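To whoever is covering the structure queue this week,

Two jobs came back overnight. Logging them here so there's a record in the thread.

Job A:
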Amino acid sequence: MKVSDGGTVLAADVFSSRCPSRSVLDHVTSKWAVLVLAALAVEPLRFSALRRRIDGVSEKMLAQTLRTLEADGFVDRVVTPTTPPQVTYSLTDLGRGLTGHLTGLLGFIQTRLPEIEAARST
């Protein structure tokens, strides 16, 4: 975050430790957040479907990740008043914009995994 002498924020600077973009970067680059966003890019999902889709995530971590992504404006949470209530998660416009970048990263990792694993073994 670059600040003028008057204290006005001019632009985000992810290289500055004082910039709020650092916490957003931390939120969206966590393993679970990337997987949640990628799963929701395909379709809106309920909590249990998300948990089944993301193998290995605990209920606690999934709930925490969803709360964080919702607070940052990337995920929308809709509660349908049934018994029991049904909660569906989907991407917001902001989330769709971000997820386009993250799915490229996931695609790169999946495509180049043999090379990555070969490099690890040397």
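Job B:
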Amino acid sequence: MSENSLLTAQLASLLTGEHNKIANLANASALLMQSLAEINWAGFYLFDKEKNELVLGPFQGKVACMHIKLGNGVCGTSAVKQKIIVVDDVQQFKGYIACDSAAQSELVIPLVKDSQLVGVLDLDSPIKNRFDKEITNELEAFSQMLLKMLD
């Protein structure tokens, strides 16, 4: 079992029996932050259907943007396209929203359950090119496990 597969197994164990969405997302972000090297922000933006925007959810890291319009920045773009976005150099992403000037690369994974957007998992790193295909695949599996645990 790879280190990151272990991470997904730890998530499943950690969340078993807990049904509170906020508690589960909070522990998931803490697990990511303490387990992954070279990460300076790990957390969630949750989809607000009424306002048609992403709203800051549980996270670990410095203060963050609280509202992101769909289609804006990496998170908003990932949410609209419902596709994983890996940004090797945030300075090269048109429309990048800089919440933390230390961020150099970003990975956003849309969270979709029963064909409905729940939100996004957002990870920032203080180094460029942090998120390769292997870690992206592992965090996609992590996200799928998380979605299974959310009511």
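Note for Job B: Residues 3-149 form a domain with the Beta-Lactamase fold (CATH 3.30.450.40).

Please reply-all if you pick these up so we don't duplicate work.
Q.
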